[in-house]
Amino acid sequence: MERNNTYTTPNPAASFATYGMSDELLASDLLSRISVLSLNDKQCLIRYISEEVDQTEEDPWETQDTSDLEPYTLEELRARLRESHAAYLRGEVLTAEEAREELRKEFAWLS
């Protein structure tokens, strides 16, 4: 009797082992797996994920208790503006085009 040496798992997600992996390593592993897909497969994956998100997405205003939320005070808004302006003066900000370019580089496989 011949034995089948091919291992298959009843749960496809089980083959995606995550034991002891950091979130960053998991994301890197997932991106490397996606990067080898054909353009058509990537588009199908994106459509599938979008449909799943649409089906499971809940309205945060309906699911979260917002009774204790308060609007920002004028001083809090001014403090945030001062922090943002200081970051701008230190060169710690990106223009919209620089941010888009970084995203294009990071997610080149989507192009």
Can you tell me the residue ranges where pLDDT is under 50 for at least 5 consecutive residues?
A: 1-14
Overall SS class: mainly alpha
Give the biggest sheet: none
Order of helices and strands: HHHHH
**Strand composition percent:** under 5%
Number of helices: 5
Strands, count: 0
Average predicted confidence as pLDDT: 77
Dominant shape: extended
Distance between the termini: 50 Å
Q: Whole-number radius of gyration?
A: 22 Å
Q: Which bin fits the share of residues in helices?
A: 55-70%
In short:
This protein is mainly alpha-helical and 111 residues long. 56% of the residues lie in helices and 0% in strands.
Report on this structure.
It is a single chain. By secondary structure, the protein is mostly helical. 56% of the residues lie in helices and 0% in strands. It contains 5 helices and no strands. It has helices at 23-35, 39-56, 60-63, 74-89, 96-106. It is extended, with a radius of gyration of 22 Å. Residues 1-14 have low confidence and may be disordered.
Layout: helices, strands, pairs:
Layout: H1 23-35, H2 39-56, H3 60-63, H4 74-89, H5 96-106
Name the features.
mainly alpha, 111 residues, 5 helices
